[in-house]
Amino acid sequence: MNSRLSVAAVSAVSLVALMGGTTVATAQESDPAPKSCDGVRLTGELPAPAPGQAVSGQITIGPDCEPELGSVRRGPASDRPARTATTTTTVAAAAGHQLRGWNEMYDCCNIRMTGLYTASSWDTADGRVTTAGTTATQEWNREPWDAGWSLTSQTAKDDCATDCAEVNSEAHADFAYQGVFDPTGDWYDNTHHSYVQLKADGTASCRFDVELRHTFVGWNWRYGCE
Asked: Which residues of 164-200 are buried (b: 16+ CB within 10 A; e: fewer)?
């Protein structure tokens, strides 16, 4: 099972390195070991695993503010926490195929800051997708004094729902932060994007993006599908 990862900086970059087909663009070069880093856009693409299995990837912001790509992980779907979205009752009841996806940002203390989750179900017959649907949910971390991350916008759509050659679903969520690490609310902003393609032969693929206005050393992005 192959996977493809790419990392692209939102702000101006001074170096682009190619490593085995993976593009890594540095976000900040002026300070050899800064704590806070410029913004980046991170992208990961994964083929859907076999039923009962999960596949995931991770990218960490390293001490020099460069994204560090981890290896793709595979394992039983039961290892995944049950916070991912659940499929709608109507579609799930009849669906022969199901797929869940996650797209999460964690801080350096392993606290999940923001997350976007999708759940897809689809049925197939005679080379067509007869019925399909994808739902999206969002989660974010709040601080005890009524501060922290907040959901500012979210959208989700399917390009087809019945009698389709294939179905392309997408979900988006934007989160803003105002709290102990930035009382102004102008510094941090995480925007998550998830894309799922459901095919008539029962296969599927997952693609994920996250855009970070600013990052911090040790932040890590986790994404996957099962």
From this structure: bebbebbbbbbbbbbbeeeeeeeebbbbbbbbbbbbb
What one-character-per-residue DSSP string does 81-99 give?
Answer: -TTS----HHHHHH-SEEE
36 Cβ contact list (under 8 Å, min separation 6): 214, 215, 216, 217
Residue 94 has pLDDT above 70, yes or no: no
Burial class (CB in 10 A: 0-12, 13-18, 19+), 89: exposed
Q: Is the pLDDT of residue 199 over 60?
A: yes
pLDDT at 153 over 80: yes
- Return all residues near 223 (Cβ < 8 A) that are at least 6 apart: 44, 46, 56, 57, 58, 101, 102, 103, 104, 206, 208, 210
**Mean pLDDT on 31-38:** 63
